[in-house]
Amino acid sequence: MEYVWMWGVIAGVLAVISAVLLSGRGAGLLAGYSTASLAERAHVNAPKLARIMGGAVLACAIYAAAVALLVYAHIQGAVDRTTLFLVAGIGAIAPVAALCVAGYRANMGTYS
After folding, report:
1. Which whole-number Å values give the CA distances from 81 to 56, 65, 66, 96, 102, in the listed order?
2. Cα separation, 75 vs 47, whole angstroms
3. CA-to-CA dists, residue 4 to 8, 12, 39, 90, 111, angstroms
4. pLDDT tier at 107 (50, 70, 90 boundaries)?
5. Which long-range contacts (CB under 8 A, 24 or more apart) does 93-100 make?
6. How confident is the model over 23-69, as pLDDT tens digits?
7. CA 108, chain centre distance (Å)
8. Which pLDDT score is estimated for 92?
9. How far apart are CA 35 and CA 38, in angstroms?
10. Cα–Cα distance, 5 to 11 (Å, whole number)
11. What are the Cα distances from residue 73, in Å, to 19, 77, 86, 92?
12. I want to staple 98 with a disulfide (CB 3.0 to 4.6 A). Which of 59, 62, 76, 85 is the partner?
């Protein structure tokens, strides 16, 4: 049961971070932007960058919540271990792809 709580806490933390980023604030939380010089930051539209990364983090939060539900279903006996690993493993592609697309769009200069 502790794994359900662990995945639930991860999903909750990611949802809070996503809410901050989706509001257009919190660009300082993003790696690369927070360490950039002032001249480099001047070329980036920080609110748009924060919103697209917030969407990617939201995809990660949804994935973590789905894994928490899968683990709970496994504990209850509704899902076997093989199905749990397959669905969780294949499902991991979506949040990773969302983060890759967001990073690619940010580096393309879409936000300037």
Report:
1. 28, 18, 15, 23, 32
2. 42
3. 6, 12, 45, 19, 38
4. low
5. 94/59, 94/63, 95/56, 95/59, 95/60, 95/62, 95/63, 98/55, 98/56, 98/59, 98/60, 99/56, 99/59, 99/60
6. 998 888 887 888 888 888 888 888 888 888 898 899 889 999 999 99
7. 20
8. 85
9. 9
10. 10
11. 28, 6, 14, 18
12. 59
Q: Can you read off the two tokens belonging to residue 112?
A: 């300037």
> Which residue shows structure tokens 């300082």?
28
What sign results for the dihedral spanned by CA atoms 9, 15, 17, 20? Answer: negative
* Residue 16: pLDDT band with limits 50, 70, 90: very high
| Radius of gyration, CA atoms only, the chain | 17
Exposed/middle/buried for residue 99 (C-beta within 10 Å: 0-12, 13-18, 19+): middle
Structure tokens at 11: 């999903």
pLDDT band at 20 (very low <50, low <70, confident <90, very high): very high
Q: Is the pLDDT of residue 111 over 60?
A: no
- 81: tokens are 């271990």
The residue behind tokens 């939380």 is 29
